[in-house]
Structure formats: C-alpha cells, structure tokens
Amino acid sequence: MSDAVEVKTLIIDEQEVSARRGQTILEVARENEIYIPTLCHMEGLSDVGACRMCLVEIKGSKKLLPACVATVFEGMEVSTNTERLKQHRRTILELLFAERNHICSVCVANGHCELQTLGQEQGLTHIRLPYRNPQLTVDASNERFTIDHNRCILCTRCVRVCAEIEGAHVWDVMGRGINSIVITDLHEDWGSSSCTRCGKCVQVCPTGALFDKSKVGTDHPKNPEFLPYLNLMREAQ
Amino acid sequence: MSKLKLATVWLDGCSGCHMSFLDMDERLIELAEFVDVVYSPIVDAKEFPDEVDIVLVEGAVASVDDEKKIKKIRAHSKTLVAMGDCAVAGNVPSMRNPIGPDAILERAYIENATVQQQIPCVVVPKLLKVVRPIHEFVNVDVFLPGCPPSADTFYAALTALVTGEPLDIPALTRFGA
C-alpha cells in the first residue's frame, strides 16, 4: 500500500471539492466553508452521530446520512440544505425541546445555548409536539458544578470529553431510549464520584445541563475552544 | 381606512409582555393611527368584543378560566398572536407540570400560609393538571417568542401585521430572548 494520500473528488451543494480518503462529509464541508448545522459534534472529540442535526442527502441513496460520521467517496453528490433536510432538522429540535424541561428564560445558559441558537437559526417559533414535562433531578453535590437533567439533550459530549481528553471516564449514559440519563461513576452523586473536577464537561456542554456554580444567572458562556488546542499540543509531544 | 381593532389578553403570565408592549413608547402613538385598542388589561372594556382583528395573548393556559377565555378569544378574532414564551411554550408557569397542581396549591396556601391555611375553592379558578401553550387549545396565527419579546420586536411585528408586509419572526426574537 502506498503512503500517498488518496484524493477523492465530490460535489457538495453543487460545489466541486476534493478530500482525502477517510475524511467525513462534515470535515470536507467545513474546509470548504459549507455550513452544516451540528449539535453533538465537537471539534476535538470523537463523533457519535447522536443528534442527527447534520443529516445530509446523497444522490442515489434514499437514506439520509449524518455528515459527522459518513465518509466521502469518489463522485459523491451531497446536498446539505434541501427543504426535506430543513424540515427534519426542525423536527429534531422540536423533539429535543419537547422531551425535557427547557425553560430558556430562566436557564443559566440563556443566550449562550447551542440548542436555543439552533432553534432560532432553523426558524423555530414554537413546538408543534406536546411537551412531556418529565420529573427530573438536579445534582448539585459537586462543590464546583451542577448537573440539571432537565436541560440535558444526551449529546454525550461530557461522556466523550471525560473519557477521551481527561481520561477519567466518570460520565456515562444509563438506561435506554427516552429514559436515558447521563450519570457519574455507577450512578453515584457527582460530589462523591471519582470526578477530577477539571470542568471540561461543563465547557463542552451545549446547553445549561452542566454549569459552573460560581457563575451568576445567565452570564455563562462556555469556552470549548481549548479542545483542538489541547489535542494539537498532545500530538506535538 | 377604518382602524383595525386590537385586543390584548393576559392569561397565566407575569404581565411582562404587556410592560414590554408599553415600552414601544412614542411608537404607540404611531400605531394608534392604524389600530384602536378595544380590549386589554390597560383599557376599561369588561367583555371581549365580538369582532377583533388582531389579538395579542400573553400567558399560558393554566386554569379552566384560561381555557374558556382562549376559546372565546379565538372565536371572535381574525389574527391570534401568541405573545411571549408563556403563550408560545408554557415557560415559567409550566414549571409546575412535573409536580402537578396539588403540590403547588399545598405549598402556596398551606405550607407557606401563616393564617387561614386553606386551598381556595370559590372565586379562584380551578387549575388544570398541566399548563400548556395556547396552540395546544386553539389555532394560533403568529408566534412571537421571547421573555418578554422586546419593544422593537413588538413594533416590527405589529407594523407587519397592520400593513400586511411579510414577517420574519426568527430574525426578530427567540425563546428566552
């Protein structure tokens, strides 16, 4: 096998682009400044295709593919912003809003929330589905951070950053389907878990599910920019 | 041209949307060229009129009284605007939904009362089991999210509704704005 980089050419939104073999559609789109909305994807973490926001259409395929995990092939024709995709994206967001208790006006992440921003960007003005209003807990046992399950969208960024970057793997997902929740250790209180209190999970959380207790009210921007930098530094070593 | 009939209604909300509406300040005078306020918490009409062109509804539907009102409002209005997050999404009033109305009444009228500990059964309307946005009860024509929608949002939206110009709501406001 040769070490030479294998180049693929494909079309994204009628634009001819080239990619390296093994690259995802999302990577190639971003390199070419073609916008695909994402929610569970985070620069510097592995991709899991959990949220389905980045679904794209591939010519010749009936299936929609998540751009964050689908890799390119020669001659691929990708559409990222068709009416069908826009409708699916809106529905996905509506499902997320209806699933748990997202009360933007009193949320610590109001104004800094990726779910809220995406809702506005995708043209959501109301939720057509009935709200589920589940009874969920808030764990404030950690001295620095709180988890509010009412705001969690199960993107698993916290799980991934804890396992892949911090190397602690304190966070994981418990339960199945709609009953899934993120847990610390074997569902122990966050405060008495093996958490290293690094706070990376808080910074990558797209909503107000994970927040820093020292921040007041809605003044809570997240700063996940450290991730690609950290990875770069590690690779350089 | 005769003026359009504008009504505003206050269901289960904090009146903040009405405050924000009033924050349009001198632009209210400009709007008064096009509309007459025929029913509102801030005017002296007691009954919802038979024919209203535009109605702005603040607040979620939380009681049997709210439910009755919203159905009457819908029946007598051409354009119904869900004004603010409570009307659009339930918002703060809906935060009682996971625990139910009994727990709320118990807390307010028994646990936190120092005298006359009793849950009201007359005059105060019965609470619904779940607080819901108004579009789960009636057809809504325009959704104006925000907590509250800003005065600028109100002005842009009302101007568009009065003139019939297109209205791009996500460009103006969002949930929690």
Characterise this structure.
The complex is a heterodimer of chains A (237) and B (177). Chain A is an alpha+beta fold. Chain A folds into two domains: 3-81, Ubiquitin-like (UB roll) (Roll), CATH 3.10.20.740; 86-236, Alpha-Beta Plaits (2-Layer Sandwich), CATH 3.30.70. Chain A has six helices and ten strands, in the order ββαβββααββαββαβα. In chain A, strands 2-1-5-3-4 form a five-stranded mixed sheet, covered by helices on one side. In chain A, strands 6-7-10 form a three-stranded antiparallel sheet. Chain A has a two-stranded antiparallel ribbon with strand order 8-9. The model of chain A has no long low-confidence stretch (mean pLDDT 95). Chain B is α/β, with parallel strands linked by helices and 177 residues long. Chain B has one domain: NADH:ubiquinone oxidoreductase-like, 20kDa subunit (Rossmann fold, 3-Layer(aba) Sandwich). In chain B, 32% of the residues lie in helices and 21% in strands. Chain B has seven helices and seven strands. Chain B is globular, with a radius of gyration of 17 Å. The mean pLDDT of chain B is 96. Chains A and B meet through α3 of A and α4 of B.
Task: Spell out the key features of this protein.
heterodimer, A: 237 residues, alpha+beta, Ubiquitin-like (UB roll), Alpha-Beta Plaits, 2 domains, 5-stranded mixed sheet, 3-stranded antiparallel sheet, 6 helices, B: 177 residues, alpha/beta, Rossmann fold, 5-stranded parallel sheet, two-stranded antiparallel ribbon, 7 helices, 32% helix, 21% strand, globular
Give me the CATH fold name of the largest domain in chain A.
Alpha-Beta Plaits
Which range best describes the helical content of chain A: under 10%, 10-25%, 25-40%, 40-55%, 55-70% or over 70%?
Answer: 10-25%
What is the CATH topology classification name of chain B?
Rossmann fold
- Hey, roughly how much beta strand do the residues of chain B contain? 15-25%
* Overall average residue pLDDT of chain B: 96
Oligomer: heterodimer
Number of strands of chain A: 10
Helix fraction of chain B, binned, reads 25-40%
In the CATH classification, which architecture of the largest domain in chain A applies?
2-Layer Sandwich
DSSP strand content of chain A: 15-25%
In the CATH classification, which architecture of chain B applies? 3-Layer(aba) Sandwich
Biggest contact: A-B, 27 and 27 residues
